[in-house]
Design a protein that fits this description.
2 helices; single chain; mainly alpha; rod-shaped
């Protein structure tokens, strides 16, 4: 028969305690190993270097994004200034056109007035000549 089935509770309990004790001793041996501290320091140094590289990349990316945002803002400001200048020029052209139209209207009115005055003067002159 199988030997494990013949063992009693006390045997199994002592075997489990011995296994736990052996596992604890192995863990303590590894924990007290002088090479473990060295390996841990090496891992920490690698982690610090990796974190520094990540931070550098992040800073470079943020700087590039900031430059791009500044360029976009400058381009937008230039477009806005060009739009405003075009609107001012268009308004000035409309105003000049309105002034020119008003001047033509005044000139036309003056011509009409002069023609009325000439007709009036001609009628007066005709009346004087008839008498």
């Amino acid at each position: 028969m199988n030997r494990s089935k013949e063992t009693g509770f006390a045997d199994r309990q002592s075997a489990a305690a011995a296994a736990k004790k052996a596992a604890l001793e192995r863990y303590q041996a590894v924990a007290n190993d002088p090479g473990l501290a060295e390996r841990q320091r090496a891992r920490d140094a690698v982690k610090i270097a990796r974190d520094a590289r990540i931070a550098e990349r992040r800073a470079a990316r943020l700087a590039a994004e900031a430059r791009a945002a500044a360029e976009r803002a400058a381009e937008e400001a230039a477009r806005q200034a060009a739009r405003e200048a075009a609107l001012r020029a268009e308004e000035a052209a409309r105003q000049a056109e309105a002034e020119e139209k008003a001047a033509r209207a005044l000139a036309l009115e003056a011509e009409k007035q002069a023609a009325r005055d000439a007709r009036y003067a001609a009628r007066k002159a005709k009346k004087r000549n008839k008498r």
